[in-house]
Amino acid sequence: MHPDFSGLYRRLGFQHVKLGSMRKAISALKSQTPAIVVAEFMYGYGNNYAGVNVSNLDVFLYSLQKYSRHSDIILLVDKSEMQYVDKLRALFPVHAVLQLPVSEAAMEQCLTRREPGL
């Protein structure tokens, strides 16, 4: 569901790194400190995430806090799961939440609406 914004990222001067698994993303944090992380949020409905973790992103976001505290997090969320985003926001700072499908203009606005120096 993740839209391809690689052209937008290049145009705005960002290096686009796409990692195919959470394990690879967490491992990459040890050698790269991303300015921005764009990730799809999926709530943990009664599966292994229930109780300890809220979503598919918890473990990654805990690692992000350890290795790159100042990264901006942009969440892409399906309309049916928007109601659960605040549970994740209670645990982690989130720069922006965009409902899927996301337009390039909406993503550009999030990317350019950042704190100076980040």
Top keywords for this entry?
14% strand; 118 residues; single chain; alpha/beta; globular; three-stranded parallel sheet; Rossmann fold
Fold topology:
Elements: H1 6-11, H2 22-29, E1 36-41, H3 58-67, E2 72-77, H4 85-89, E3 96-99, H5 104-112
Parallel strand pairs: 1-2, 2-3
Helix pairs in contact: 2-3
Structure report:
The protein has 118 residues and is of the alpha/beta class. It has a single domain (6-112), classed as Response regulator (Rossmann fold), CATH 3.40.50. 32% of the residues lie in helices and 14% in strands. It has five helices and three strands. It has a three-stranded parallel beta sheet with strand order 1-2-3, covered by helices on one side. Helix 4 links the parallel strand 2 and strand 3. The longest helix is centred in the middle third of the chain and has 10 residues, at 58-67. It is globular and about 40 Å long. The chain starts with 5 loop residues before the first helix and ends in a 6-residue tail after the last helix. The model has no long low-confidence stretch (mean pLDDT 90).
Between the first and last Cα atoms, what is the distance in angstroms?
27 Å
Q: How would you sum up the global shape?
A: globular
Helicity, as a percent range: 25-40%
Strand order of the largest sheet: 1-2-3
CATH domain topology? Rossmann fold
Mean pLDDT: 90
Summed up, the domain count is: 1
Which CATH architecture?
3-Layer(aba) Sandwich
**Total beta-strand segments:** 3
The top level CATH class name: Alpha Beta
> What's the main sheet like?
3 strands, parallel
- Subunit arrangement of the protein: single chain
Q: What value does the Rg take, in angstroms?
A: 14 Å
Approximately what portion of the residues adopt beta-strand conformation? 5-15%
Low-confidence stretches: none
The CATH superfamily turns out to be Response regulator
> H/E order of the elements?
HHEHEHEH
**Alpha plus pi helix count:** 5
Structural class: alpha/beta
